[in-house]
Specification:
2-enoyl-CoA Hydratase, Chain A, domain 1, 22% helix, 12 helices, six-stranded antiparallel sheet, alpha+beta
């Protein structure tokens, strides 16, 4: 068995496949008196073994996992698809670590109290796919974490009172898409697709909705849309590739003596995709004399930690200086430098080239990084000219996750932070990819805690002012929208419920998404995750 990554592996472009064999040598070395892991097997069997062996050393709750001979990773063979079997193995691994209530940390509710059947945090990504969605097997995202999109540009959901009386609402339009170019917006709803009426017979209509908007069959579609003002338009949409800004909308409001900046942010894409838009928006805020902020993260499932830090540094007052932002807490094996299996994971540069940061002829691996709390403590470093913000109100939902929750948690010790909406997803853990053959395995690797040692929001962050879920009848930034209005009122006068003005509505009353009533729309979910993309080498 090899003991590390050889340069012959690298020159052949096969260095990650070595993980399949190196992982086995690690386990055998730990059990010299008893051979537990087979040293031969098919490529798929070695992949299954490696997923287990990496989890045994790197998973946040590694010490609650069983031994190889009782877990039997090669026994997951119920599907003809390799990825299905690997995901079944990962799901089984995540059932062992349980909280004080004897519930798996990675339990994901199906909405009816049962288990969704997949981990809440950890997942596997087939690197041969484009735009994979975390936690949603065999699904792809419309816009990935680099800002690349390929679809019609609509984020859709069903809202209604019954399967014979519902509406297919546009929750968001992705900037840069054909839908954005055609002038569609949040709060509008589709009433016909390719001349077929939508909204009166769910059972006969849902197949068409899924095929058109969430499948690969259609590259063009004709739709009829009811606009927010009640008028209707009919237009053709083209599915195309595009580069998307992660910012849906930014606005500035005058509220008495205060000036409020509003930003709706879709996802924590890599910094090269988010930074210029962040700088543009916050420069506008500074020039306008903004004193308080409303940050809309209702559809933001997270993304890159480095981008979350940049946003926090734009928001925080300069008086905070270089105080602690947060710390990442890895498991004890990782902190003690005993997760030796990580020697097989190379640290790459931005162009995916292996690094030799010490110029000693040895390539850097994840095992060369330090995983102590001290080494993984981040401090503030003020960015931009917006200063002396008094209050930040975050708009959230059950889709608000991970890096979004990190921002909220980290700013609380230093600012007046309020949360409006529904309880968030609940993901205080993060990861970096572990490459095994053609798969990137994202195991829950660390928990983030703020400067007061606060974290552990596995059940989500509860709102200071709850706003029930309702159909999206207004655009981002519209003060008639209940969550935005509540945040505005709090900043202006300290009361969430004081009236701004009477909203004009499309529907006579709020309606819940049909998913809460048993419908199965093949939604294009946003990424949910917190990716650590800056491994520190000693």
């Amino acid at each position: 068995m090899i003991k590390g990554v050889t340069k012959s592996c690298l020159s052949a472009g096969k260095f990650y496949f070595c993980a399949l064999f190196f992982a086995l040598s690690i386990m055998l070395a730990c059990k010299k008196d008893k051979k537990i892991v087979p040293d031969t097997g098919s490529r798929t069997e070695l992949t299954k073994d490696s997923i287990f062996l990496y989890a045994k050393q790197a998973y946040l709750w590694y010490n609650q996992l069983p031994e190889y001979d009782s877990f039997k990773p090669r026994g997951f063979n119920s599907s003809s698809e390799e990825l299905d079997n690997l995901e079944a193995e990962l799901f089984a691994l995540t059932r062992y670590a349980k909280n004080s209530s004897n519930v798996s940390y990675e339990f994901l509710s199906n909405g009816s109290g049962g288990d969704e059947g997949r981990p809440k945090y950890s997942y596997i990504d087939n690197t041969t796919d484009q735009n994979p969605i975390a936690f949603v097997p065999n699904k792809k995202a419309s816009v990935d974490l680099q800002g690349n999109g390929y679809d019609f540009g609509l984020k859709l959901d069903l809202y209604g009172e019954s399967v014979s009386n519902y509406k297919l609402y546009i929750e968001a339009v992705y900037p840069g898409s054909d839908a954005a170019a055609k002038g569609l917006g949040r709060g509008e709803y589709i009433t016909a697709i390719n001349d077929k009426t939508i909204g009166t017979n769910y059972n006969s209509e849902i197949g068409l909705v899924n095929d058109v908007f969430f499948g690969d069959k259609y590259t063009t579609v004709n739709i009829k849309v009811t606009k927010r003002n009640g008028t209707s338009v009919t237009l053709n949409l083209l599915k195309k590739s595009y580069k998307s800004s992660p910012i849906y909308k930014d606005s500035v409001y005058t509220a008495g003596a205060k000036t409020i900046g509003y930003m709706a942010y879709a996802r924590f894409t890599n910094l090269s995709n988010s930074q210029s838009d962040f700088n543009r928006v916050f420069e506008r805020f500074a020039t306008s004399g903004v004193t308080d902020l409303i940050i809309d993260l209702r559809y933001n499932g997270g993304g890159y930690v480095s981008t979350a830090e940049y946003l926090m540094n734009l928001i925080v007052p300069s008086s905070v200086g270089t105080q602690m932002m947060y710390a990442e807490h890895f498991n004890k094996l990782m902190q003690d430098g005993k997760a030796t299996i990580l020697k097989n994971q190379l640290i790459l540069d931005a162009l995916n080239h292996p690094q030799d940061s010490n110029n000693d002829g040895k390539l850097d691996t994840y095992a060369d990084a330090s995983y102590t709390v001290a080494s993984n403590t981040r401090n503030f470093a003020k960015q931009g000219s917006l200063n002396n913000i008094n209050t930040v109100v975050f708009l959230v939902s059950g889709s608000t996750a991970s890096a979004s929750e990190l921002v909220i948690n980290c700013l609380k010790p230093y600012m007046n932070v309020k949360v409006v909406g529904q309880t968030t997803y609940g993901k205080p853990v993060g990861f970096f990819p572990i490459r095994i053959d053609k798969y990137d395995v994202y195991l829950s690797l660390f928990e983030s805690k703020n400067s007061r040692g606060e974290g552990g929001y596995y059940s989500g962050i509860n709102p200071d002012y709850p706003v029930s879920l309702s159909a999206p009848r207004h655009d981002f930034g519209d003060l008639n929208e209940e969550s935005i209005k509540a945040a505005y009122n709090y900043i202006r006068g300290g009361s969430y419920i004081a009236s701004v003005k009477t909203p004009s509505t499309v529907l006579s009353k709020s309606v819940l998404p049909l998913e809460q009533k048993g419908a199965t729309l093949s939604r294009d979910s946003e990424f949910k995750g917190m990716i650590e993309d800056r491994i520190k080498v000693k």
